[in-house]
């Protein structure tokens, strides 16, 4: 899908002048779309990056050493370091443990370079208490009475990603996914969640509609996946940009208020995802010495795409209040630094972003999976029985498997059409391959996600057409 930079956004001449004035003439990162920087510096960074990706992956035994590469660090271990500094001490002269600069030199750049030395200690060795702050709690709550609640562990992507957090002294702060307007219900739910080391944030229906369904999933989610901003007619059900962004900031402040109530000196606060981009600022405004990290679980778009967001400046400034900003890949981290240099006019370095002498560290922490969990599942009788059924059903054929949420960014219609094109161009594969697509409905209250439900009849037509045209001979 092509992207129209206008994206339905009304930009004034003043906006363009401010953005152009903020665009630096040099950039520390190759390929960020900005003007070329110093040839020597660019060559060095390119050489370091090439060496980094050419180096062998560390062995499991080496994963908990100071020499571990940033690309081998999991997001769950990002903050497990006694070198994670509070803003009061986060100066280039005293960040040695986390790869900071000394004497003005970038000693351990986490974004590029071979053997960068970003400290990756396992969460098991962490002495500080960890406060995980995310939009949703890792449990689903169902009310069974005035003061009775039942809780079930959720199976979301973020929950799966943070399974390692259970090995440390951690508490999870987030929305329980239900509206609880009465104090009796709130007290009962808070008590029930405490047994799961969870702390609820109570959001009313209007805030959820504007903040979650509106700004988070109708604006940020599509934009961060390069789908562009919604047009005015698609914003009708969730009002407009201004009201949604106001609700977004109010919701983030409500999360911050709950953090204040449970924060103890020395705690590490780990904020998650695009829902809470405004949270680092709220926390630092309350206590500059809080240790705050923010991790994004989606792509971060190129600066050309991100700059179409009306609230681009405010969100970037807020995220930069964190001490450490993490992304899944080097490219996402590079896009973020590029946005800060081109839109805010700040200095990007191999370590992150510097603003008036304060360094916000930016690094990539590729996420992993719990492989042991999958191995254990293979030993279950129900799983073995299902494997035998699938083996018999698709015997002799290659299986193309897709497991996706029914979301506009997943490209399910395009996948089906691509499969049809493949069969058209490769008739010999007619009896040898099958496409198995599993689609899970999600975010049915979000206008963009709801609209894809109307595409389902069309998908059925596509599938019937393919099945009829390329019906197996046997």
TrEMBL record:
<comment type="similarity">
    <text>In the C-terminal section; belongs to the trehalose phosphatase family.</text>
</comment>
<keyword id="KW-0808">Transferase</keyword>
<feature type="region of interest" description="Disordered">
    <location>
        <begin position="1"/>
        <end position="118"/>
    </location>
</feature>
<dbReference type="Pfam" id="PF00982">
    <property type="entry name" value="Glyco_transf_20"/>
</dbReference>
<dbReference type="GO" id="GO:0005829">
    <property type="term" value="C:cytosol"/>
</dbReference>
<comment type="similarity">
    <text>In the N-terminal section; belongs to the glycosyltransferase 20 family.</text>
</comment>
<dbReference type="GO" id="GO:0003825">
    <property type="term" value="F:alpha,alpha-trehalose-phosphate synthase (UDP-forming) activity"/>
</dbReference>
<dbReference type="InterPro" id="IPR001830">
    <property type="entry name" value="Glyco_trans_20"/>
</dbReference>
<feature type="compositionally biased region" description="Basic and acidic residues">
    <location>
        <begin position="41"/>
        <end position="52"/>
    </location>
</feature>
<feature type="compositionally biased region" description="Basic and acidic residues">
    <location>
        <begin position="12"/>
        <end position="21"/>
    </location>
</feature>
<dbReference type="GO" id="GO:0005992">
    <property type="term" value="P:trehalose biosynthetic process"/>
</dbReference>
<keyword id="KW-0328">Glycosyltransferase</keyword>
<protein>
    <recommendedName>
        <fullName>alpha,alpha-trehalose-phosphate synthase (UDP-forming)</fullName>
        <ecNumber>2.4.1.15</ecNumber>
    </recommendedName>
</protein>
<dbReference type="GO" id="GO:0004805">
    <property type="term" value="F:trehalose-phosphatase activity"/>
</dbReference>
<feature type="compositionally biased region" description="Low complexity">
    <location>
        <begin position="71"/>
        <end position="86"/>
    </location>
</feature>
């Amino acid at each position: 899908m092509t992207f129209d930079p206008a994206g339905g956004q009304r930009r004034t001449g003043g906006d363009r002048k401010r953005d152009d004035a903020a665009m630096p003439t040099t950039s520390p990162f190759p390929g960020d779309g900005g003007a070329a920087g110093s040839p020597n510096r660019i060559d060095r960074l390119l050489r370091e990056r090439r060496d980094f990706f050419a180096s062998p992956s560390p062995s499991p035994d080496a994963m908990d050493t100071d020499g571990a590469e940033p690309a081998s660090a999991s997001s769950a271990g990002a903050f497990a370091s006694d070198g994670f500094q509070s803003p009061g001490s986060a100066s280039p002269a005293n960040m040695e443990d986390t790869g900071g600069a000394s004497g003005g030199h970038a000693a351990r750049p986490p974004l590029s370079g071979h053997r960068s030395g970003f400290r990756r200690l396992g969460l098991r060795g962490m002495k500080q208490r960890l406060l995980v702050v995310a939009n949703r709690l890792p449990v689903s709550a169902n009310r069974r009475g005035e003061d009775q609640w039942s809780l079930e562990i959720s199976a979301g992507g973020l929950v799966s990603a943070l399974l390692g957090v259970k090995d440390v002294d951690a508490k999870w702060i987030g929305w329980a996914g239900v509206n609880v307007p009465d104090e009796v219900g709130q007290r009962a739910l808070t008590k029930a969640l405490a047994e799961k080391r969870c702390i609820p944030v109570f959001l009313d229906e209007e805030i959820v509609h504007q903040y979650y369904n509106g700004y988070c999933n109708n604006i940020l989610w599509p934009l961060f996946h390069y789908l562009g901003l919604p047009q005015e007619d698609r914003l009708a059900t969730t009002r407009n940009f201004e009201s949604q962004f106001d609700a977004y900031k109010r919701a983030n402040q409500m999360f911050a208020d709950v953090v204040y109530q449970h924060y103890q000196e020395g705690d590490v606060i780990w904020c998650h995802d695009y829902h809470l981009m405004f949270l680092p600022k709220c926390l630092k405004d309350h206590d500059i010495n809080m240790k705050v990290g923010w991790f994004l679980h989606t792509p971060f778009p190129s600066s050309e795409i991100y700059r179409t967001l009306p609230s681009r400046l405010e969100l970037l400034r807020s995220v930069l209040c964190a001490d450490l900003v993490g992304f899944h890949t080097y490219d996402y981290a590079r896009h973020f630094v590029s946005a800060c240099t081109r839109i805010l006019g700040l200095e990007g370095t191999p370590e992150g972003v510097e603003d008036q002498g304060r360094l916000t560290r930016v690094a990539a922490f590729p996420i992993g999976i719990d492989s042991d969990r999958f191995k254990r599942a293979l030993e279950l009788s129900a799983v073995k029985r299902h494997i035998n059924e699938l083996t018999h059903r698709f015997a002799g054929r290659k299986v193309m498997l897709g497991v996706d949420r029914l979301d506009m960014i997943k490209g399910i219609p395009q996948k089906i059409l691509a499969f049809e094109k493949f069969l058209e161009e490769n008739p010999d594969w007619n009896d040898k391959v099958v496409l198995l697509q599993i689609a899970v409905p999600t975010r049915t209250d979000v206008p963009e996600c709801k609209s894809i439900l109307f595409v389902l009849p069309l998908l059925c037509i596509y599938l019937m057409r393919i099945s009829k045209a390329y019906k197996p001979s046997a």
